[in-house]
Amino acid sequence: MAPSTATTCRARADGRRSHLLLSVRTLIAITTAVAFFALPVHCQSEKRLSSIQQQQQQQQHQYYDSEELTSGGGGEVIKSKIRPDTYSQDPAQQYEKHLQHGKQSDTVGSASTVYGEQYGDGSSLMQQDQPMLDEEAQESISSGSINNHRIPQYTRGGSPVPADVVEGKNVGNRAVGNNYHHPGNPSSATGGYAVDSAYGPHYSSQDLVQDQNYQLEFKYHDYDKMTKFLRTTSSRFPNLTALYSIGKSVQGRDLWVMVVSSSPYEHMIGKPDVKYVANMHGNEAVGRELMLHLIQYLVNSYSVDPYIRWLLDNTRIHVLPSMNPDGFEVAREGQCDGGQGRYNARGFDLNRNFPDYFKQNNKRGQPETDAVKEWTSKIQFVLSGGLHGGALVASYPFDNTPNSMFQSYTSTPSLTPDDDVFKHLALTYSRNHPTMNQGVACKAGTPTFNNGITNGAAWYPLTGGMQDFNYVWYGCMEVTLELSCCKYPSTSELPKLWEENRLSLVKFLAEAHRGVHGFVMDEHGNPIEKASLKIKGRDVGFQTTKYGEFWRILLPGVYKLEIYGDGYIPKEMDFMVVEQHPTLLNVTLHTSKRQDNTPYRQPVPHFYHHHHPQGIALAPKQPTQDPGIFSSITSGFNNFVSNMFG
After folding, report:
1. From 100-104, 462-466, 598-602, the region with the lowest mean pLDDT
2. What sign for the dihedral angle of Cα 292, 297, 302, 306?
3. Which of 167, 289, 478, 482 is catalytic?
4. Which residues form the active site (predicted)?
5. Is 500 a catalytic residue?
6. End-to-end CA distance of the chain, in Å?
7. Rounded distance, CA 10 to CA 5, Å?
8. pLDDT over threshold 60, residue 83
9. Could you give the C-alpha distances from 482 to 149, 281, 368, 376, 458, in angstroms and in order?
């Protein structure tokens, strides 16, 4: 018998209910399974997020108060962490390889495209030789929380990430007013050097129209042509250059200095200042021309070469192309030896006119050297190169020795406490030069130099040299760079000389980013100006800037930093320097008061350098001298030797 219609409808309804119930049960089972497997992932994510936040908090504490990372400020070793875009694979090595393979631009003076392929996105860096990283460093890299020590973080557009975004506090990368000023800013008129008054409205369109391609010929430029080139450059590249004068020569010529940096008018806190000084002897003309080509090369390369961009974004480069413009005007091209043009207009050798640590220098100060001394006292330079000619060698301090009758014959080295660093700096230049590192004598009867470097006093001692003054008085590490066997070679030699020195000139400046740097602050976070610092065992000290900054070039190793501040408790901190990037070390000093609640004035420790309260350097206590006729004979012989060899 066939079922009734009502029975059939009930059966169909029961079937639908069963299917629906089965679907609901299946959905619940699937959801439960997903939740079960997702729970560990969620917990792991929370743990990961907590770890990242903890890393970020720890990193901010390291940047702003290194003391918190030590055992009660007792000096535990602090090791800077490694980030993937620091050049553990040094971009300069790729730069060197590129030049060796002949891939540099064929157009002389044009911007290079060295890193277009190798270094453009940074990915190839990670695929090449990398140091072994510990777990903490790996975690910091993957989390992105690691501090930026050497190469800055960039957005895809190339702009630096704001400091308060990267670090959480606006301390590390703030721009502040410079030691020179715009002529129209009366509030800073007494604060330092004035920017060239011809900058802008008085010097712009007509000269630029005549030089649309911005080419610098390989020829010697007299004072007027050099001035025109520098002003043209400052007009054409106002965001990368600033031109100022530190004083005038005996005959009234400006001693022009050009700053090349992405912050030419403002000091970027935490970024070092470096300098080149050329043409100190007026007849040693190669350095003068190479400085003009270096300026052009840097500004042309900034937008296309990541390494040059990094250098200018993180360094302020001051270039003094001619310290002796009067001498250059009377020197003659083609004269490889002799003294015509060597001296200033009053007949003084400017490289014998600085205060000397070893002997009293009684020579009357000259306008050119006085200007450089004041300049060096106003700006805390970390690294410097003095460019000379007449030999092919990189010479490092000391240039002088304690007086000895036979010092010129014995050629005894006079080594600094930082001898390892100075040898490294000299080798950095010579090894990147195709022939200097070979140490071949320029001509018969002249000395050879092992690896193309020499201690200054071992070559021949001199009194009143600029590189010893920089180091002893202000802690600035300067190396004397002798660039050509002929002091004033023919114009045809200039392209070759530029190509030989270009790589060395760039890589030498980058050495300012080696060692240790940081800030000295009080317990309230205020910078301490003119705090005295010294690396234990290296008795040449250095001081902090008005913003509490300090820098010191050091090779990899473990060191102890001694810090003294007037009215503060002295402190010592251990730290480690690694090869890949400079170590960031911040110091907090605590005030020290007597029982009567007055500040205690801590005795200043003995360093080589001493400063007058007004900033004028006073000669330190002189070592015992051999007086009388023997000293006069020695000085006369030294002058004869120096005129022979530069």
Report:
1. 100-104
2. negative
3. 482
4. 482 (proton donor/acceptor)
5. no
6. 129
7. 9
8. no
9. 33, 12, 21, 22, 15
